[in-house]
Amino acid sequence: MGHHALYPQQEHDLFGLLYAFSFRPGESGRELDSAQTLRKLSEPLDPDEFLWLHLNLAHAACERWLRSHLPLPQAFFETLREGSRSTRIEHVDSTLLAVVNDVVFNFGLVSSDVSTLWACASSQLLVSARLQPLHSVDKLRSSVKQGERFHSPIELLVHLLRDQGDLLTQIVRETTTSVDRIEDQLLSQRLSDNRAELSSMRRVLVRLQRLLALEPGALLRLLNRPPEWLQEQDMRQLRAATEEFTLVISDLTALGERIKLLQEEIAAKLNEQTNRTLFTLTVVTVLALPINIIAGFFGMNVGGVPLSDDPNGFWLLVALVATFTFLAGRWAFSKRREY
């Protein structure tokens, strides 16, 4: 009995299966262990049954097991070697091939790190593989374990896209809150270290937009020439999910533009402060110029210094310095309008 209890875990360690589920229309997904999964794959499935297998590509034997046990197209393995590319869903050899860049799962926290999920869907099988735990996949698994019902592998893929859209919406909402706070500080003339924070947020948004946005060309080809087994209901759900996802990406782009405008406004404010500081230094220099020039002349240790024997010479110099200082100050403050 002990050997039988350890067998599923041993199989799990052999080829990197994280979890598997079996689905039937109108029923909740049933989780399978490794032994049950291998048995399901070795026998023909019922016509209305389909499987979802999720694997860990970090396992050394995972790709080799995929090649030998599952009917996956060669294009799937080619995309595994490509690494992270733009998110896309395309029709390849009567299957749907999906490359989904998703946010890395971080124990309930929203992370800006992005990793790739590779998925291949046919009429009775959805295979997904990843290198790191992903947030949207974890949400999909939770939905399945909570009893949500799915009628096809495409419905699982659509749910995954919608979970990813929900996560992006959360990121946009949190970033918008931070941008609102910085905007309020800008309006109240408290700039502090907002430039660095805005730059960091903008870099994250640009990276998420670049990696998570769906390729429109591949999606258009899929919608125009779908696989024969893809039902009309699945097509409608896939089209609706991609439209929702595109709207979230548009919000992401708009928020990035808003951050860019705030950065430009902060740069203008800092430039204005710098100009005022330079103006103040210029005024001080101009006001000190007359007395410095006169002190330099009269401080020369030579003969013939004027007013040296005049009892009123000091007051004459004071009047002279005051006059020149007044004229210099008037000129300097007349330039203030230009700043």
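^ that was protein a. below is b, sequence first then the tokens
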Amino acid sequence: GRYVVTANKEVMAKHGPELLALAAKNGVDILYEASVGGGIPIISPLKRDLCANEISSVRAIINGTTNYILTRMSRDGLDFDAALAQAQDLGYAEADPTNDIDGHDAAYKVAILASLAFRTRVRLEDVHREGIRRLAARDFRYARELGYAIKLLAVARREDSSVQVRVHATLVPEDELLAKVDGALNAVEIEGDLTGKVLFQGAGAGSLPTSSAVMADVLDAARAIVQGWRPFPWRYAADLAVRPLAQLVTRYYIRLEVADRPGVLAGIARAFGDHQVSIASVIQKETDEAAQTAELVIMTHQAQEEAVQATLAQVRDLPQVVSVGNFLRVDG
């Protein structure tokens, strides 16, 4: 057998456990530090430094392109298309940015991290994935007024014998460290039963950071060959059930465009009440006098995803609701 060093996240997300098992059978290993987080050391710490922990959660900003776009939208008030064009001009985004802005890249990476952290097999189809296309500059203004930053967050959580893994735009409280990770930087927060929360932050892409990760793996492989030992392998424990997103319980941000007339709030509140979704606050924002519409921002208390989705379906059908402008989950 031969040692393999790779930065290919798609291969490791789709076939990693099988390839690692095959390598172990042949007395060698596959080293893939550069597949997640660029120059941030995260794969090796999960295999070695944190191996005594029962890890309960992984929360990560692991796509530099989208984090740059969201930072420009937040700081400069740019709309999505303008921020994307700026990222492309600077080389942060590809000519076809689909893989980044629709969350595919982050989904590959969180599948790798979740498999490693929970010592199980998380398949790509187990990851709920949403992108950032529907975000508007005003969502960042409203989020800031409410005390949040908006990030494309990859989240993996274990509860008993099940896991839930998701990637989507998320409201993160401004006082959290992840909320302060801006530009093209990446960050991964791991929570273990012994360490508590630990945060790894740094350059998530680029030739030099990636070279650092690749060369670390090459040197590990060389030491293993010379000294006759294997690097710390991936440890598989058991298959874990995948908890559907419908069972998620969190707070929600909902932006609506509604007719600017009396009685509108009563109908909307009734729809929320029909599904036992409790409203924490309602704020009227911009008003379009010509169109006779107003914008409402609703924050909920803790609610189940399934109930919130049913509420939104009912709200969309209300005659006084022009559109559901956006819908974001809170994490933290």
